[in-house]
Specification:
Blueprint lengths: L1 H18 L14 E5 L6 E10 L4 E3 L38 E10 L4 E8 L2 H12 L15 E7 L3 E7 L5 E8 L1 E2 L18 H10 L7
Parallel strand pairs: 1-6
Antiparallel strand pairs: 2-3, 2-4, 4-5, 5-9, 6-7, 7-8
Length: 218
Amino acid sequence: MRMSVILLIAFFIYDCQAADPLSGKSDPKDQWWSLSFVEPAYMKVWVEDSAVEDINDKLFNRTGGGTAGSHDSEDATEAARGWSKNISSGIRGVVGADLPKRIFVRWQSVVESKTYRAWIDIPEEARQIMHSSVNERCPATPNEPANFITMVYLGLAPGGIVQVWVTDKCLKSVKVARAQAEIEPLGPHLGKSGGHYYPLSEASKRYIEKYGIPYGSW
């Protein structure tokens, strides 16, 4: 009797897998997710600190910082207006965290010499996309395994604009949130740098002198 039950369960699992050829639940995957930062072209930022509160209300401090991914363009006229169509940056795993409930970031908008901070709420829609991105294969490439890691990108722009994307199962960046940060009253490095900001690149200086900062485009 027991063997019959075991065989029945085995056949049930096999039938479910056969009925869902796009299932990627058994494909290899990272146990964590990635948090990365991006900036509009030439609008340089320096991320001082970040933190994550996950869906279990656990807080993870110092989850990433430093430079942000950018797509500076040779055709620079409107390069900084809006966001790049190809959102990408380095992978930085948030070790130990479950899916995010909200994310904190404090950064220097180097082109403005201003420091911003914000907590961004992550909607349920984003978590659903993150979950499916590593557990379901892309319909366009059903023979390829599901994504190895799910990614969250925080776009940081002048004026304190924060935009959030997550990657779906076909590696498309999906916008899931937007927030307005507040000024950090202590200034850069929480007042420990004497008001000094991360240095602005010569390319950014030239761009801003010629075209300005396209506020309102992000």
